[in-house]
Amino acid sequence: MKNLRLWLYVVLLAAAVCAMVALRHCDGGAIPLQPQTSSPQKSGGDTIDVAIEYSPGSYYTYADTLGGLNYDLLRLVAKRMHRPIKFHSVVTLSKALSQLNAGTYDLLAGQFPLTAEDQQQYLFTDEVTLDKQVLVQRIDPKGKVKVHTQLDLAKKTVWIVNGSPMRRRVEALSREIGDTIFIKTENSYGPEQLFLKVVTGEIEFAVINSHIARSLAKKYKGKVDVSRDISFSQFQAWVLKKSNTRLCHQINAQIKAIKADSIAYQALLRRYS
């Protein structure tokens, strides 16, 4: 049964990705993306090892095509720095963060909001984009949903990805509404799989980033609601080990230069909006 559910998630996710943005062929400039393994190896030399979250807003692959906002932006940054870059696809942020601290990766790129709490543990680049967290819930055959306002989440159970900063936001929201919101974590898969678990009815509610939710919801119009905000808009940034200040400064310089070319930067944002 578990294998059957996993196969169903893979099929649904593939269909959702195919229905997203127009796919573009990959050109040179990056070492081909490496799948997540139990013991990834650091490249060495001046190669930038990037753990990149597999998601519509970060990185996706279909056939021989690679794309995603973080993927394209990081390739551009590395090109401007005249350094090779190697991507390692990751699904679980908690494991990727531990490997970042261990020095296996130089940088983690994903749907990671910049929060004061995380800045005490990690080094963040300048903000890359803006996003927020939303609730994913099914729409019943009559076109109704169970949660209309944040107050309706009282005594409800929501799912988040293990290691996600969203736990703190949901805990804060629980205090704000003066009632308990139960939290369960997905330890093996990413936000897309949580979305698809809502679609299939395995879980009722999930909290994921708005960009991912909107991208996937286009495939399931009338079936899934992603219009209920859980947080205000937050800056999204890339994550480095606290001691890796030199690389962070170098990347920030390129982010600033890319943003200064507002036409190209806005075109990149629109491509994945």
Summarize the structure in words.
- The chain folds into two domains: 12-130 and 236-271, D-Maltodextrin-Binding Protein, domain 2, CATH 3.40.190.10; 132-229, Periplasmic binding protein-like II (D-Maltodextrin-Binding Protein, domain 2).
- 36% of the residues lie in helices and 23% in strands.
- The protein is built from nine helices and 15 strands.
- A four-stranded parallel β-sheet has the order 1-5-2-6, with helices on both faces.
- The longest helix is centred in the first third of the chain and has 17 residues, at 2-18.
- It starts with a helix and ends with a helix.
Inertia-based shape: globular
Structural class: alpha/beta
N-to-C CA distance = 36 Å
Give the percentage of residues in beta strands. 15-25%
**Weakly predicted, low-confidence segments:** 16-35
Instruction: Kindly provide the radius of gyration, computed on alpha-carbon positions and rounded to a whole number of angstroms.
Output: 18 Å
**Main pleated-sheet profile:** 4 strands, parallel
Number of distinct beta strands: 15
* Overall mean confidence score, pLDDT: 82
Q: And the CATH topology of the largest domain?
A: D-Maltodextrin-Binding Protein, domain 2
Percentage of residues assigned to helices? 25-40%
Output the CATH homologous superfamily of the largest domain: Periplasmic binding protein-like II
Enumerate the strands of the largest sheet in spatial order, edge to edge or round the barrel. Answer: 1-5-2-6
